[in-house]
Amino acid sequence: MQAKCSRWRAALLFAVVFVGVGASAALGTIDKPARAASSPLPYPQALRPQVEFWIKIFSAYSEYQVVIHDAVYLDKVYAVLDFRPLLKKHSEAKVRKLKAKRTRQELKKIRAALHKLHKHGAKGRTLSSRERKIRALLKDVKGRHKFRTAAAKGRLRAQSGIRERFQESLRLSGRYLPRMEKIFRQKGLPVVLTRLPLIESSFNINAYSKVGAAGIWQFMPATGRLFLKINHVVDERLDPLIATRAAADLLKSNYERLQTWPLAVTAYNHGPSGMARAVRKVGTRDIATIIRRYKSRTFGFASRNFYAELLAAIEVEKNSAKYFGPLKRDPLLWYDEVDLQHFVSLENLARAANTSTERLLALNPSFRRLVRNGKLHVPRGHRLRIPAGARKDFTRRYAALSPKAKADQQVAAFDFHRVRSGQTLGVIARRYGTSVRALQRLNGLRSAHLIRVGQRLRVPLKGKRRRVARAASPDGTHIVRRGESLGKIAQRYKTTVAALQQLNGIKNAALIPVGKKLRVSANAPGKAKVRYVKHRVRPGQTLGSIARRYGTKVSTLKRLNGVKNDKRLQIGQVLRIPTG
Q1: Amino acid 503: pLDDT
Q2: Nearest to residue 577, comparing CAs of 526, 543, 527?
Q3: Is there a contact between 491 and 515 (Cβ–Cβ < 8 Å)?
Q4: Which phi and psi angles does 424 have, rounded to 5°?
Q5: Mean pLDDT in each 10-residue stretch from start to end of the chain (580 residues)?
Q6: How far apart are CA 271 and CA 275, in angstroms?
């Protein structure tokens, strides 16, 4: 049986190397505390095993190598599985499948060995070679049930190397790091914090996680909206520099609340409230003690290792020549910036900049799909990046665009539908001649089953329906029909809900009866069309101070923005402000 197993392994060219790494062993060491004094980030001695583990994952182990290790004692490595020889005979896809399968098998064998050591004790004469190596590896771990504990779910773990990906991330970082460092200096933050994208996204500007985090800083939608603009036109999480400013603000806020950088950095992954709770429960701000003693269902492996990963990434980057040899980074991206005064298509902007739409998108990665495919225009007020040195010619060509190419308002790419009792996303999709998937994408719905009665959904317009502006009746009125909302009517006549409310004395926009005659004409006697601007709430601002700034009333702002409690404004919240 053993001979057959040996032949099977040889046929797969599959190497299993058992390694017992003590606390003093390392493949590339991080700065000692004396040298680390020059760094603004503390380096606790208790985190040394974790940091050295991640240094190896980043710099030594290939993506086709798997390290099987203990999730608490990261210096306890049971095995390193090397799948690189298989690449000589198999495709990468085939090797990845073999990698997943053989890793599961190896985990099962190691878990069985741990259970055997727990059940039968550690008698050397009855142990296999594998079991003796595991016994020696855990010799300094105390506890009567240490082998059973080490075999528990979540404790025995497999980690692939990312040497290739880390090396690529260092190359990509050259496009943005100098400007990112400048932003952090201006905000008074440690510059080395700009290396967080090395572990968050590998500087992939298109990075999306399974849970919806996006961009090089991996902002979740809810957190991102506190600092960034995220809608169907732009997602500023995808712009490395705009997102860097937001990340700096978030890290600064974490530090002001938690008072240490190890906690502030860990809070970037685990959340500031979670880390504040950890401090209260453990009774210390020492990150190593919290990692060792704090128990929480949500404080898992990723959160416990987040700060150590950052220290390791800083070390590997600082000594990249040692780990990767000569490394050439991409040059810094250079560009000019212009502020747009109209709604203009991406194609016309590329023509004015004398470049391709692909190049313009590379400089402006925050544009969403509807802008990229031309269904929506780049919005007025957007600061557009254009190729360096093109500002003068762009200004001339932009001025020469036809009046039709420079609109005063956004084109209509979709209509609205308010969900009624009994309706499903499938029913709504069939009604509008679209697909469930398209509705999910257009409305940011993670599940097709989670819609509620009264919810307002975007639905795509087809063909001539994109021409939503229609003339009012001769007397400038519109009769409300079944299924119409004030928003739909406002869009149809190229006006706003606020304008219709003011024109018709409507207090509640949701209560318009079928058959009601509405005045919709912009030239209606005695009434003026209401226009508005957008204002992003800044720290320290209240609804009263914003109202005074724009010469309006708090009650008007509350009604226009659906604000019930004027004391619960959020930093980064966008308000509509009436003008004129």
Answers
A1: 80
A2: 543
A3: no
A4: -115, 170
A5: 40 38 32 38 94 97 96 95 94 95 96 91 76 92 92 94 96 96 95 96 91 92 90 92 96 95 96 95 96 94 96 96 94 94 93 93 93 90 94 93 87 81 86 85 80 86 44 64 73 75 77 76 48 78 80 80 76 76
A6: 6
Report which of 157, 115, 155, 153 is spatially closest to residue 134, judged by C-alpha positions. Answer: 115
Q: What was the pLDDT predicted at 249?
A: 95
Instruction: Report CA 315 to chain centroid distance, whole Å.
Output: 25
> What contacts 386, CB < 8 A, 6 or more positions away?
335, 336, 337, 338, 353, 355, 360, 363, 394
Q: Give the SS3 label for residue 574.
A: strand
302 and 241 share a domain?
yes
Do 116 and 253 belong to one domain?
Answer: no
* CATH code at position 501: 3.10.350.10
* Rounded CA separation 29/52 (Å): 6
Report the CATH number at residue 318. Answer: 1.10.530.10
* The two three-digit tokens of residue 374, written as one number: 């031309």
* Same domain, yes or no: 478 and 538: no
Cα-Cα end-to-end distance for the chain? 88
Nearest to 532 by CA among 393, 446, 444, 409: 409
Instruction: Tell me the three-class secondary structure of 124-181, residue by residue.
Output: HHHCCHHHHHHHHHCCCCCCCCHHHHHCCCCCEEEEECCHHHHHHHHHHHCCCHHHHH
Segments forming the whole domain that contains residue 227:
173-324
Residue 213 phi, psi (nearest 5): -70, 145
Q: For residue 273, with 0-12 CB atoms within 10 Å meaning exposed, 13-18 middle and 19 or more buried, which class applies?
A: exposed
Assess whether 66 and 126 both reside in one domain. Answer: yes
- What pLDDT does 547 receive? 80
Other C-beta atoms lying within 10 Å of the C-beta of residue 125: 4
> Exposed (0-12), middle (13-18) or buried (19+): which is 471, by Cβ within 10 Å?
exposed
pLDDT of residue 531: 64
